[in-house]
Amino acid sequence: MSQRPALSKAELEIARIVWDLQKATVRQALEALPDSRDIDYKTVQTFLRRLEAKGYLTSKRNGRSLVYTAKIRPNQVIRETVNDFVGRLFDGEALPLVEHLIREQGLGSDDLDQLKSMLTELEKDQATEK
User: What is the reported pTM?
Assistant: First the structure.
């Protein structure tokens, strides 16, 4: 696990916006939020500053505005967050998480087909490694 502090739900929402836009000012991040989100400019600015302080974003001055870009790729953040979650909640075991997701969230027939295909591929990969 990385030394970076974990993200709050709101910080992750803002980080996703920067990842999607590839770079964003406070105004651009604010405008990218759904209309249903009642967040003001200063709050978005605070989240962006926190994300930079935590090592997830970096900024450069462009005129009077700071332009934020990702310092860490989304896949890395997902991997670290999931690893931390599985470690804390499932004692590092992934199968109980998968079982929980399947039983609680349910899978449609297309999802089941895709899961079967993934399992078959994993079995082939493991057989090749031996």
Answer: 0.76
